What does this fold into?
Amino acid sequence: MGGVTVTALDAAWADRWLRECARVLADRREELIDLDRAIGDGDHGENMDRGFRAVVAKLDEGPSESVAAALKLAAMTLMSKVGGAAGPLYGTAFLRASVAAGDRDKLDGPAVEAVLTAARDGIVARGKAEPGDKTMVDAWTPAVKAAAAPADGEAALEAAASAAEAGAQATKPLTARKGRASYLGARSAGHLDPGAVSTSYILRAAVTAAVSEISAGDVA
Amino acid sequence: MGGVTVTALDAAWADRWLRECARVLADRREELIDLDRAIGDGDHGENMDRGFRAVVAKLDEGPSESVAAALKLAAMTLMSKVGGAAGPLYGTAFLRASVAAGDRDKLDGPAVEAVLTAARDGIVARGKAEPGDKTMVDAWTPAVKAAAAPADGEAALEAAASAAEAGAQATKPLTARKGRASYLGARSAGHLDPGAVSTSYILRAAVTAAVSEISAGDVA
Amino acid sequence: MKKLINDPRAVVDESLEGFGLAHADLVEVHWDPVYVTRRGGAVQGKVGLVSGGGSGHEPLHAGYVGQGMLDAAVPGAVFTSPTPDQILPATQAADGGLGVVHIVKNYTGDVLNFETAAELCASEGVDVRTVLVNDDVAVEDSLYTAGRRGVAGTVLVEKIAGAAAERGESLDAVEAVAKRVVANVRSMGLALAPCTVPHAGKPSFELADGEIEIGIGIHGEPGRQRVGLEPADVLAERLLTPVMEDLGFEAGEEVLLMVNGMGGTPLSELYIVYRRAAQLLSDRGVSVERSLVGNYTTSLEMQGCSVTVLRLDDELTSLWDAPVKTPALRWGV
Amino acid sequence: MKKLINDPRAVVDESLEGFGLAHADLVEVHWDPVYVTRRGGAVQGKVGLVSGGGSGHEPLHAGYVGQGMLDAAVPGAVFTSPTPDQILPATQAADGGLGVVHIVKNYTGDVLNFETAAELCASEGVDVRTVLVNDDVAVEDSLYTAGRRGVAGTVLVEKIAGAAAERGESLDAVEAVAKRVVANVRSMGLALAPCTVPHAGKPSFELADGEIEIGIGIHGEPGRQRVGLEPADVLAERLLTPVMEDLGFEAGEEVLLMVNGMGGTPLSELYIVYRRAAQLLSDRGVSVERSLVGNYTTSLEMQGCSVTVLRLDDELTSLWDAPVKTPALRWGV
Ligand SMILES: Nc1ncnc2c1ncn2[C@@H]1O[C@H](COP(=O)(O)OP(=O)(O)O)[C@@H](O)[C@H]1O
Ligand SMILES: Nc1ncnc2c1ncn2[C@@H]1O[C@H](COP(=O)(O)OP(=O)(O)O)[C@@H](O)[C@H]1O
Ligand SMILES: [Mg+2]
Ligand SMILES: [Mg+2]
Ligand SMILES: [Mg+2]
Ligand SMILES: [Mg+2]
It folds into this structure.
């Protein structure tokens, strides 16, 4: 049996989060491409992979000074490397998140909620999507809501990630009203929204970065 | 058991020959297209079908006055409707054949030989192909030779058609040195030459037009 | 996937490099970030014209950079809008002191990236106007969508606004004429076969033998409707009718008719579609005064076409006829 | 077979009808027999230029009818040379009193039909010269073949001879310059995917995934060699090397480089091939002075391309640059 240790949601965590995003999104590249092929233009997996690879290249220049700095680095890089709808939306999300993180050296539960809320609000401000429009907002909105309860940062992240996963799954029956999938009208129903799914991966990556699995041997 | 009656190789026969060519070539359109797809550009069946349909349309205006007139009508029509290599080659063949038929009102064995020889020589004069180059000349040359023996016109045609069929089959192993198939080099071997095959159909049609099958009942 | 490419990730850069070499007399390709300008840069005292969008629609947009059309083009990754850090320097390079018009196809990604870029440009002191092109009538219900897409009509906006800028019109006037083209141009497209995005490696959608997609966009998106293959004359009518209805044409009007290939369709087929579309227009008493037939706004190697109609007036016609000297559109000079 | 057509047998006529409607300002389509002339007919006191061949290579040849290029074009059925009864009136319509040059791609069918037509023309009092184009180096051993084929280099012959005729050169001179282009132009092509002739209804050959044909012609004929799909840079070299060797290029020479699409290949891919071909030429010290990239001599919807190199001298360059005003090639006017 193994155990887990939870690390503080500090600058090092933020860097690990971004690297974990890059790892997961590279892994899920084809899956996200296929989701986007079904109701969009088949580039979402490539866009996210390209963006986060660039983030990692930036991180390799040295560790971030703060959570806010890491998030801002992600924001600027995604903005200039992703393009498409996802670039400005995730770019704005990380930028607003960075501002919300402020000069905190680590995030507790309420801080996690504040950061995620800022991110979601940024996406809504840019993209004007409402819940139910079958966009990434449908993953962010339940995530923000779920993050409100826990006092502990990691628990807030865990709740957010699970809610985002459920939210992403719940986009399946919806008819898209924003983004490229909206052109399909009723034919968009029956498919997951790629941006909602990538959001769920990004939030799950935040949890993974916070939690190290320790094998039974290690804790013996 | 049935018998056959042989009709004179006169103007009516010539008209029937051309109509029979049209019928057979329409029937063999796809086969000739496929042969030409393999080593050429896939139009031989379409070209021959188009050309002989036009010949029939001309024949429908009234019966030919003579063998020579029927052959000249075919020559001019094929020349203006077939295009490609086959158009001028068959056009020249029928034109020279028409001249060779001259003012004969019907053809006997030597006349058949003279007509076929003129046709073959016309093709060679235009196309400069030698026997073995994997062209229609490989059907015409043995046909001309076989037509030399019989005194009887129908027997000469029958011998020519059979020789043309054998000649066409014998093009299979050859490497093309003239026409579009020559671009393939050694890859042209292993396929029948479409023009040699259409030549064998045209000569067989001449026999069919000369011979009416009569069922046993009719001759009882 | 069979393509004349090297690394799927290098497609846009290598293609632009070839483009720059082939048309060095007309254009300049800039790297890091990537954008294309007219050879010689901004024309002082002329309104600048910049467009851009995902790659894969060649010759759109870089093929339309040159005298009488665009001053700069900003290519994104394949089917992915470019980013603000590309659009900013392209806009600065296009600014001849009178400001710049951004011609943007109406897609969420393009709109958001050009929006951000316009803010950056403003903060750098460049007066930027944005004209959204949304000619695709296949997207019917714009209340419940991201709005109509910009497709092949974009070429007409770029040509006509480019001519207005070239003849010395003000920023307001160039913006206004571009918007007038947008207000009077409509398009609709169909696909016989999908395209394959290099980095995706798989066709953008699946179509059975004998099936086609009506109302496709230019990004390999599936269309609104899947129907059986029909004769070209029927298909031409399927495309033209909604275009005509949306524009509300009346007898006696004059139009430009464009039949645009999606990249993998032979020119001969485009002319067959053109023939029927022209007949239908003339049946309604609409007079086709100008035409454009060819691959002008493509979707990689997609097989299919779109039909575009632009309502003309004397000014638009004379701007259309004005000289243009770009890699992909050229006359009068 | 998925095509934007009506009846497979009506493809050529309906396409020409659309072509005539779309370009009524430049050309006139004649029926029964079919041929295309410059709007306004023969230019008196100018040598006439006529070309023709099977359809399916659009814009070749009808797309090159107009000022500075052809006076008439004679389209046959798809991939089938036209007949003498079409070529005769087209030639007469092109004769401005100084005689006519026939530009004929070297295929048995084209040669024989133009030969007969030339005899008919002579008997009608038109002085006809025939220039055979045979630029395709894929056909190596011309002793054992019908000789090298005419492919995309034909466009360069038509453009340059057309410019010579337009500037008032004599029949001898126009014939001579056309032959000089033929002597200095070489091409080679490849296919990633075959085309389907409408009346055949089946692909012209079969290629497995990952297989390509090197040395194809423009009639859907299989090539000389079937190889595995390779990167564009390798393929560009496979095409350019025999072209260069056949022309025997030396450092310091100047050339025109053309990368021609076979109809179904995106422009972006052609530029990737162009990029490498231009690099290879410059590595050898050969200077690319002019370029042409696009679908200029096609094979229906075939996917693939050809590379053409023309050795330039000052006269050929200035004839190339001379104004041309046709549906498919236009500059300077
Ligand atoms: N207006 C919007 N608001 C929020 N999210 C949006 C909006 N438009 C698109 N999206 C999200 O962007 C995702 C698509 O991103 P991507 O494929 O990278 O960009 P593009 O659509 O430009 O190709 C969609 O799945 C959706 O979640
Ligand atoms: N030089 C030639 N001499 C004799 N026959 C030839 C010659 N060139 C081609 N042919 C014949 O023409 C046939 C092809 O005819 P067709 O397909 O209609 O014309 P094309 O080759 O122009 O498409 C070949 O199969 C061959 O028999
Ligand atoms: Mg997408
Ligand atoms: Mg053939
Ligand atoms: Mg995209
Ligand atoms: Mg042919």
About this structure: Residues A 41, 43, 84; C 54, 79-80, 109 surround magnesium ion (ligand 5) (CB under 6 Å). The CA atoms of residues 224 and 309 of chain D lie 20 Å apart. Chain D touches chain C through 64 residues (CB under 8 Å). The mean pLDDT of chain D is 95.
